[in-house]
Automatic annotation (TrEMBL):
Protein name, as recorded: S-ribosylhomocysteine lyase
GO BP terms, alphabetized: quorum sensing
Known partners and oligomeric status: Homodimer.
EC number per UniProt: 4.4.1.21
Family to which this protein belongs: Belongs to the LuxS family.
Keyword Membrane tagged: no
Binding sites annotated in the UniProt record for Fe cation: H57, H61, C124
HAMAP family membership: LuxS
Amino acid sequence: MTQHMNVESFNLDHTKVKAPFIRVADVKHLPQGDTLTKYDVRFCQPNVNHLDMKAVHSVEHSFAECVRNHSDSVIDFGPMGCQTGFYLIMVGEPDVPRIADLVEQTFRDILALDAVPAANVVQCGWGANHSLQGAKDAVSTMLRHRAEWEQVMA
């Protein structure tokens, strides 16, 4: 048995999950009464495949911009270092079905984009490191598996 770790995802047995999926990774109840929920939006099977870094960067920019057209509850959307998915942090109690609908709607927006938002040297720290097609391919693959998103374990 491995020691319990402080980081929730380090306690997840990555050999037993079946990507793609969306799951609640953490819930924080703040002192003023607000609740933050962190969702694991997993694109790729851990230790089997991963997203290309240009695709990761472009999904991050595109999702972060587009999701805010549909929700004022978004705190952050950021990539996992392992390049297999993203963390979506939202204000509110956990609600995977509602978040899955929000993610789906945002992915459909990404498919309609003509350019990656803010993919330039003025608005981005590495403006040349983007791939709109890579982002579209990644979200298209996720959308093909939409019915499976709420099933985390294999």
